[in-house]
Amino acid sequence: QVQLKESGPGLVQPSETLSLTCTVSGFSLGSNSVHWVRQPPGKGLEWMGIIRSGGSTDYNSALKSRLSITRDTSKSQLFLKMNSLQTEDTAIYYCLFLFTTDSYYVDFWGQGVMVTVSS
Amino acid sequence: DIQMTQSPSSMSASLGDRVTITCQASQDIGNNLIWFQQKPGKSPRPMIYYATNLANGVPSRFSGSRSGSDYSLTISSLESEDMADYHCLQYKQYPYTFGAGTKLELK
């Protein structure tokens, strides 16, 4: 079955770089797109970016200068890197498989990984 | 970027009430809108997709509608299990954008 699992450091120092991994199973990254979404504590959801089946990416306009999403299809892993972290980047980070048409919908969320930015 | 203005940010209602939450899109998004429900400590759950389609397993008291650039999620008769946060997401164009969310509480 389809599963996604995020992993990474729980604590990051301000101004440093966040590196997260999303390991997927049950589907191929070479044929499907995966999104990253984050949620600061007590706040709403924020779409961060997508890596498509062909490897192209799109990013949140407010984050694109410091965000990079890449993948290794042979390992079924995708990677999020974001630099110059600040306390406002404290959030739960999710990877998300979502496919929808006008008559069909499926999504699978990872469990999320909590990242705290603090010295 | 498309802005999604969601209202209200929070509301309280009684069991059996009819509840409506709205998202207004700053540009045309067609019907490319999803409503998610999120309970504390859980990942979001899709309730409505393509603005008006009920996602799998969602009770029929939930419905989605569209009037121009205004999109609504309606719960016809509120039940205790509906207390949660609700989020809209437009997927018409990149970057995708969420509304700010609505916290629905019991009065």
Which regions of chain B contain 5 or more consecutive residues with pLDDT less than 50?
A: none
Radius of gyration of chain B: 13 Å
Proportion of residues in β-strands of chain A: over 45%
Proportion of helical residues of chain A: under 10%
Number of helices of chain A: 0
Helix share, percent of chain B: under 10%
Question: What's the arrangement of secondary structure elements?
Answer:
The complex is a heterodimer of chains A (119) and B (107).
Chain A: E1 3-7, E2 11-12, E3 18-25, E4 34-39, E5 46-51, E6 57-59, E7 67-72, E8 77-82, E9 91-100, E10 105-109, E11 113-117
Parallel strand pairs in A: 2-11
Antiparallel strand pairs in A: 1-3, 3-8, 4-5, 4-9, 5-6, 7-8, 9-10, 9-11
Chain B: E1 4-7, E2 10-13, E3 19-25, E4 33-38, E5 45-49, E6 53-54, E7 62-67, E8 70-75, E9 84-90, E10 97-98, E11 102-106
Parallel strand pairs in B: 2-11
Antiparallel strand pairs in B: 1-3, 3-8, 4-5, 4-9, 5-6, 7-8, 9-10, 9-11
Architecture overview:
The complex is a heterodimer of chains A (119) and B (107). Chain A is mostly beta strands and 119 residues long. In chain A, 0% of the residues lie in helices and 52% in strands. Chain A contains no helices and eleven strands. Chain A has strands at residues 3-7, 11-12, 18-25, 34-39, 46-51, 57-59, 67-72, 77-82, 91-100, 105-109, 113-117. The mean pLDDT of chain A is 97. By secondary structure, chain B is mainly β. Chain B is globular. The N and C termini of chain B lie far apart (36 Å). The model of chain B has no long low-confidence stretch (mean pLDDT 97). Classes of the chains: A mainly beta (119), B mainly beta (107). At the A-B interface, strand 5, strand 9 and strand 10 of A face strand 4, strand 9 and strand 10 of B.
